[in-house]
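Lab meeting, item 3. Inverse folding demo.
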């Protein structure tokens, strides 16, 4: 049975089982849609490589558009990852963003959108990497789904235990500062996977553009779970 169909069917049948990943009020809160493709001429590669300049860009865009949070990124063909050798590849650099980013202040609470258990966690402590990362495992009427939360605070990993049960809507983490989250402006990388392919505490958040069709088979659109109203997204 097609796993994408199973996921959509679960969401349709169990809308009350899904909670927000970050708290927001759709009446007053807005999300600015960031564009990190080559069509964004306001942001240079040099600015992105400089965490302080990149942070100023993020904050100024949020302020200018009167948005508390930012969002974007699923299957976006980005050039942003030129900032880190982690995404270099001799044949083809990885520029296809596989999750959704939610930009906001460090300390912003992160919640589990679905009930499940802690699959794994670790601090991917390299420049341009996830930093502190948590992966949850969910059983959705027989369909196994994994959710990944990257760029967290180091304190978010304190006291965690593999296999620990997590409830939908339970606070699981906070967004980290640049000096602990892989050297990024504060944000959450939220990603879904059907198969972790043997990985633990980490899973690529960026892939090769040439492999997009194959990647989509294993990595469904996180917006299915986020369910952020279109009317709240600007830009």
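The presenter then showed the designed sequence:
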């Amino acid at each position: 049975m097609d796993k994408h169909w199973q996921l959509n069917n679960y969401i349709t049948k169990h809308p009350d089982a899904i909670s927000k990943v970050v708290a927001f009020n759709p009446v007053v809160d807005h999300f600015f849609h960031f564009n990190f493709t080559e069509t964004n001429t306001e942001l240079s590669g040099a600015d992105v490589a400089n965490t302080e300049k990149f942070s100023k860009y993020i904050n100024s865009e949020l302020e200018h558009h009167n948005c508390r949070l930012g969002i974007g990124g699923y299957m976006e063909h980005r050039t942003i990852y030129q900032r880190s050798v982690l995404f270099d590849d001799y044949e083809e650099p990885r520029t296809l963003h596989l999750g959704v980013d939610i930009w906001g202040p460090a300390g912003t609470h992160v919640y589990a959108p679905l009930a499940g258990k802690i699959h794994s966690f670790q601090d991917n402590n390299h420049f341009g990497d996830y930093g502190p990362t948590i992966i949850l495992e969910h059983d959705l009427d027989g369909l196994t789904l994994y959710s990944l939360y990257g760029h967290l605070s180091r304190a978010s990993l304190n006291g965690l235990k593999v296999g620990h049960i997590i409830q939908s809507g339970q606070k699981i983490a906070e967004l980290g500062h640049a000096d602990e989250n892989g050297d990024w402006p504060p944000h959450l990388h939220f990603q879904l996977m059907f198969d972790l392919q043997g990985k633990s505490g980490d899973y690529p958040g960026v892939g090769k553009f040439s492999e997009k069709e194959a990647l989509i088979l294993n990595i469904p659109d996180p917006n299915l779970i986020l369910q952020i109203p279109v009317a709240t997204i600007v830009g």
